[in-house]
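Homework-ish question, so no full write-ups if that breaks the rules, but can someone show me the predicted structure for this set?
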Amino acid sequence: MNDVRYSAPSTLDEASKAMLAANGTGWILAGGTDLLVQMRSGMRKPGVIVDIKKIDEMMTVQDLGGGSYRIGAAVSGAVLGEHKALKKAWPGVIEAINLIGSKQVQGRASAGGNLCNASPAADSGPALVAAGAILAIHGPNGRREIPVEKLHSGPGRTTLAPGEILVSFTLPARPKGSSDAYLRLIPRTEMDIAVVGVGVNLTISGGKCTAARVGLGAVAPTVLLVEDAGKALVGSSLDDAAIEKAAAACRAACKPINDKRGTIEYRTKIAGVLLKRSTAIAIERAKGN
Amino acid sequence: MSKMHITTTINGEPTEFLCDPSQSLLDVLRDNLGLTGSKEGCGSGDCGACSITLDDRLVCSCLVLAPEAEGKKIETVEGLAQGEHLHPLQKKFVEFAALQCGICTPGFLVASKALLAKNPNPTETEVRFGLAGNLCRCTGYDKIIRAVMEVAAEMRGAAR
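A: Not a homework solution, just the prediction itself:
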């Protein structure tokens, strides 16, 4: 047995100090569905495990009004999926988070952990990028906020400094006529890793698209905000030509790898296909709002 | 290396144990407490053979650190039968031959109980998706799904 220590502080300052004192050997434990597997395989050898689930802010969902929610980074997918108002306000974000693993994994795994594990194929990434989620980060020098697309610096790497902890993500208020959707392609129907994932968040007013954001996953070293895809939709009536232009922007943004799940060519093509399909779902949902 | 002293509740019984900080809850259940109903299949959260509930939430005990059990309520497959009386799911699994080698069975029973607690009237699709985190290499799943659907129907009937 190696000499791992376990601590479960009740404040963010204590957690941040414990991480800083661990001098690079500290690992945050939220749901543990990545960390424990990595420990078992020998990929991670923590000196200190800092369980942040005793910190209230990490475990709380707060309704800020107007469809805006602040969600604790360690809240499990199962809890988020059972939050009816949140699911209604942000169906794309919640469907993305609920796609991560089985019921057993959902009982523990959190969106914050999914983000900080920093897989380019993480399902929460594209949906949260599309949503325009703002991350609150607590560190030795206090608080800072960043847009979610600034968190990742490469596969498995984040821009968090030593002692910094992702505390929550805030989904912004949206006008009437807004909704979102997330679709991924996997080789089977359940329990697999995305070959491509696309999140779309849009607002429709008077038959025109007035706002749109597109997040793209599993096709580059980090999750991407495809600004050109959003621009192609905004101002249009969401007609086929505009959606095809957005799909082309997604294909152009792809910098994928070849691996056992898909080739570069396949991933690039699918990015356009999923953009069209998830946009169609978001449009239907937005019309109902 | 000092052991940690953990106080928890397992199947309704207040329980204390000593563990290493990085020991999994599954290892403590099996090796320290002799509750060998929960099985280790994959050790990575893919197979569901180690399924338990932690504060009524279905989880893989191989992906829970033992110290996390402090102050929690744990239910394992050993808590299903009341003395000599099998739980309706256990009876139906026997009746329908919804098991062969039996390694996955405790996980399926715990997961099925958790599923029916949340959704007493599931469709077949909901049962199949709800149990997608439990792997069985013997039965082809059909008998398991039919057993769970049948128990759901019987429990709804009894509740009327």
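Now go work out the reasoning yourself. Hint: The domain at 4-79 of chain B is CATH 3.10.20.30 (Ubiquitin-like (UB roll)).
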